[in-house]
């Protein structure tokens, strides 16, 4: 039975990679300037325009994918005789995985032989993207569905997410920092360094003074925590700050010999909460 890899738009993978590898991506949604857009990897709303709106003070809202969206797609694949692996955005940050589970149960009630596996990645942005990337590569190399599911489940809590943001006010709105911390931090040029924990939650780890120092902390972190770097494709996502993402890439590759580095935008769903100037780094370590 042929296997199809599914995920959602919070994977932040390059659209070209998604299309080349026939990855089925469920779109979350954003409401911005009184208009609804699908978060479809930059096809419906230009990423630069989106971040420019945030910089101008416009505040979007986001919406998860509903069960009906998943049910339609699951049914299509089942009717075509395909097995499905859905790797979803962290359940601690969105209800989309729960929607997928409801849809899976509905489809299995209708189709006895439906073969659908739902994986809560406990991951976000290109952390989720890294897991999907690896699943796709394994599929191309002839791995079975069970082998792919086992690898993702065994490694998802080794997937390090480390990031920093340029504007604390976006984290304040999401309840990640207090209003006082945001105001004082902005005044003093304090930049937080955060990671995603084993529950898939965003957790502040440290604070440093100055943007370049916060990016340097990301480089120091990967030096300390990465395992078998020469075998790893690592990922960097950014909130419309490509030059700084490239700066981080150079810092890393000057001292850590990785297989490759993939850089892409933080999409609108996550970007709504992290803001312009976000820099995030993803790689495998012994643990998160």
TrEMBL record:
Keywords: Lipid-binding. The keyword Membrane does not apply. May bind long-chain fatty acids, such as palmitate, and may play a role in lipid transport or fatty acid metabolism. It comes from Clostridium isatidis. One of its GO terms (molecular function) is lipid binding. The keyword Nucleus does not apply. It holds the Pfam family DegV. InterPro entries: DegV (IPR003797), DegV_C (IPR043168), DegV_domain_contain (IPR050270). It comes from the Bacteria. Signal peptide: none annotated. This is Fatty acid-binding protein DegV.
């Amino acid at each position: 039975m042929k296997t199809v890899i599914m995920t959602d738009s919070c994977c932040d993978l390059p659209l070209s990679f998604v299309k080349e590898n026939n990855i089925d991506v469920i779109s979350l949604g954003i409401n911005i300037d009184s208009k609804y857009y699908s978060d479809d990897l930059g096809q419906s709303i230009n990423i630069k325009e989106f971040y420019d709106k945030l910089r101008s003070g416009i505040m979007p809202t986001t919406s998860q994918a509903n069960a009906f969206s998943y049910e339609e797609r699951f049914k299509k694949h089942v009717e075509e005789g395909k097995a499905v692996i859905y790797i979803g955005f962290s359940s601690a940050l969105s209800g989309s995985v729960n929607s997928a589970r409801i849809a899976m149960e509905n489809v299995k009630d209708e189709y006895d032989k439906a073969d659908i596996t739902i994986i809560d990645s406990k991951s976000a942005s290109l952390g989720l993207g890294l897991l999907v990337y690896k699943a796709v590569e394994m599929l191309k190399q002839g791995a079975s569905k069970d082998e792919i599911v086992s690898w993702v489940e065994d490694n998802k809590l080794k997937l390090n997410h480390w990031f920093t943001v340029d504007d604390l006010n976006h984290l304040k709105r999401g309840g990640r920092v207090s209003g006082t911390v945001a105001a004082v931090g902005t005044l003093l040029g304090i930049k937080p360094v955060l990671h995603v924990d084993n529950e898939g939650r965003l957790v502040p780890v440290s604070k440093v003074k100055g943007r370049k120092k916060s990016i340097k902390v990301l480089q120091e972190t990967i030096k300390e925590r990465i395992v078998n770097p020469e075998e790893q494709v690592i990922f960097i996502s950014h909130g419309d700050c490509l030059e700084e993402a490239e700066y981080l890439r150079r810092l890393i590759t000057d001292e850590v010999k990785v297989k490759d580095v993939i850089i892409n935008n933080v999409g609108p769903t996550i970007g709504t909460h992290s803001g312009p100037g976000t820099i995030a780094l993803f790689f495998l370590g012994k643990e998160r």
